[in-house]
Amino acid sequence: MAFEAELADAKSKLEKALAALANDFKHLRTGQATPALIEHVQVEAYGSRMPIVQVASITVPEPAMLLVKPFDKSTIKAIEKALSEAQLGMTPQSDGSVIRLSLPPLSTERRKQLSVQAKEETEKHKVAMRGNRRDAIKDIETKAKAQKVSEDVIKKTTEKVTEMLKQYEAKAEAALKDKVESIMKF
Questions:
Q1: Quick check: 2 pLDDT over 80?
Q2: What pLDDT does residue 34 have?
């Protein structure tokens, strides 16, 4: 087939969109604590802003608790401030050497809100996937006209791109289903 590079590029972009969705899902809270809930928090330390994972270790000693242990005890106030400002729905409690974050139990209403948020994230990434398909088809058509390729080859190639999109949208829907189940379960 004449358009392997274009198909590979389209597949790569769809993979990236699916990976971005999985990354966004990490930040959506379920009833269970996970370090991914706070890994994105930026801490003002040593004269610059950096992710919390660069200044502290994050562990899960209990299912509903995160324990943040700074590598350098002098950064504990900056970490505590960053966690407070991040509006995570958890109040940091410091004892001078570690910070504890207790996850409050999720109400049914909050679980429904998180499920809706997960659906919105999925739809946003599916729209990005469709945009990737559109760009790939446009690229294929442009190159086909320049190379004077038959309409049948163009049609078959665009059908492959569309089929690839359907597969990745199905993967996104499966990831959404799993995330909603985990939100509603705990």
A1: no
A2: 84
Phi, psi of 182 (to 5 degrees): -70, -30
**Average pLDDT of the residues in 66-79:** 92
CB atoms closer than 10 angstroms to residue 48: 8
CA 147 to chain CA mean position, Å: 39
Half-sphere exposure of 66 (CA within 13 A, CB side): 27
Q: Which superfamily does 4-27+107-185 belong to?
A: Ribosome-recycling factor (1.10.132.20)
35-102 is a CATH 3.30.1360.40 domain = yes
Residues of the chain with CATH 1.10.132.20: 4-27+107-185
Q: How many Å is the maximal CA-CA distance in the chain?
A: 72
User: What contacts 24+ positions apart, CB below 8 Å, involve 4-11?
Assistant: 6/136, 6/139, 6/140, 6/143, 6/157, 7/136, 7/157, 7/160, 7/161, 7/164, 9/136, 9/139, 10/132, 10/133, 10/136, 10/161, 10/164, 11/164
Instruction: Provide CATH 3.30.1360.40 ranges for the chain.
Output: 35-102
pTM: predicted TM-score of the whole model, two decimal places: 0.74
Pick the more confident residue, 184 or 166: 166
